[in-house]
Amino acid sequence: MSSSMESAQSTRVVIFGSEYSIKADVDVETTRKVARYVNSKMAEIHENIASRDNVKIAVLSALNIAGELFELKDKQENGAQEISEISNRVAQITKKIDAALQKD
């Protein structure tokens, strides 16, 4: 029996000037895409703050990315709730239509 880490692919990426070997269960292109995104966030933070401390830049970038994730999760939850409400309304309307058709 093989674990998911055994099937993980190793990919070399450069993030904010440092090279990393990343082992992930996703395809190489996805790993590179994620690395490019992290690199762009770090570059964005680097441009907008006076600090040149790479650890601080990495932490602020992680906080920004986590904030984006939480925002998307909230939108997804709200969307799922709206879909559920619409589904319930459709079911109620369908019952009314069925009842009206049975009267005829």
Account of the protein in words:
The chain has 104 residues and is of the alpha+beta class. It has one domain (9-103). Helix content is 68%, strand content 13%. It has two helices and two strands; from the N terminus they run ββαα. The chain has helices at 28-48, 54-103, and strands at 9-15, 18-24. It has a two-stranded antiparallel sheet. A hairpin with a 2-residue loop joins strand 1 and strand 2 (18-24). Helix 1 (28-48) crosses helix 2. The longest helix has 50 residues, at 54-103. The termini are far apart. The mean pLDDT is 92.
Question: Which terms would index this structure?
Answer:
single chain; 104 residues; alpha+beta; two-stranded antiparallel ribbon; 2 strands; elongated
Q: Alpha-carbon distance between the termini?
A: 63 Å
Unreliable spans are none
* Strand neighbour order, sheet with most strands: 1-2
Helix content: 55-70%
Rg from C-alpha positions? 24 Å
Describe the main β-sheet briefly.
Answer: 2 strands, antiparallel
| Total count of strands | 2
Order of helices and strands: EEHH
Structural class assignment: alpha+beta
Q: How many individual helices?
A: 2
- The best one-word shape is elongated
The total domain count is 1
Portion in strands: 5-15%
* Mean pLDDT over the full residue set: 92
Helices and strands in order:
Layout: E1 9-15, E2 18-24, H1 28-48, H2 54-103
Antiparallel strand pairs: 1-2
Helix pairs in contact: 1-2
Short description:
68% of the residues lie in helices and 13% in strands. It has helices at residues 28-48, 54-103, and strands at 9-15, 18-24.
